[in-house]
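User: I'm writing a tutorial on reading structure tokens. Could you give me a worked example: one chain, its sequence, then its tokens, then a sentence or two explaining what the tokens reveal?
Assistant: Sure. Here is the example chain.
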Amino acid sequence: MAWPRDAQDVNESTARTPARPTGLSHNDVHGGNIMFGSFMDHPEHGRTPILKLLDFGLATRISSYHDDGTGEQRNILDIGIMMATIIGLQTDRKYTGEEIEVDLSALNRSEIVLSPASNLLEDRDMGTPDPFPQVDLHLRLITAACMASDPGERPSLAELENWVVNGISYGADKYGNITLERDNTIRKIVQQFIFNA
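And here are its predicted structure tokens:
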């Protein structure tokens, strides 16, 4: 979304985040506008297919900061909402949650942000249990950061890319060799629930 339209590199797995975001806001991120590509011989896309965002018909260029953020910050919010929807397996409706305080120190951020992540994370202040203990906590924290109520507290595309690259570099041994975290298990799940759905 902040990638340059005239990028010459055809390798879709190559990061192409420009030095300055373009201000493009997609404005219509939902499951119907996401297409799955195929698996590739690549460390990341050997496990999960490339995702492509389609239909830029409602896209607008945000030239400066508004109350609801820059184009990049709006896109990051939409990505977070889409990820939360997928984590909750509620793809028939858009994710919603109550605003809670989220400690991002595990992502090397010192601040606590407000995020509508009550349906993703344990809220110790309210005594609610962890709704998804089987889903990687770092993934859920990244998702909560993307949905931060204050647009200025959302990660940049470059920061988000770093978090994701670091997250996928871990093997199943980081998770106690849990069967669900093994590459071949992930490929089977993707095949069954995405390609064979």
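What the tokens reveal: The mean pLDDT is 77. Helices lie at 71-87, 137-146, 157-168, 183-195.
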